[in-house]
Amino acid sequence: MKKIALEFIRRGSTVCGLGPIVLAVVYLILQQRGVAEVLSVGEVCTGIFSLSALAFVAGGMNVVYQIERLPLMTAILIHGTVLYFGYLGTYLLNDWLDRGLTPVLTFSAIFIVAYLAIWAVIYTVIRSKTKKLNQMLRQKQIDSSTAAPKTQ
Questions:
Q1: pTM of structure
Q2: Where along the chain do its domains lie?
């Protein structure tokens, strides 16, 4: 467990610095759309800290896929759940999402569809690469078994 916790911290720390960059992009988009004209120091600090924390957690959570005794579907469920609550909390904390049932349900539907779509793409790519590797291995086995035996 200690190894996994250290790996979580390492991975999270690697991407943690991306939080402020993402925040700057979000604020620029909000400004262009006329949603955010002026931000207080508190809003900027909350945004920086919350997005840095979210980036840390999102980067670190990939460690769940390294836990060998954890079934893939369980790892996906844990990963998705933590990311969902992390993003939802960040959006609510920064007032990027209105509080209420309808905005939260809309956010939830978008998050679930996007998460599943991303996983479908990842699964398809990995499956394709695995199939190619297996074909290459089979061909290599066939080639090595049909090669003429060496004489001494």
A1: 0.73
A2: 1-97, 99-143
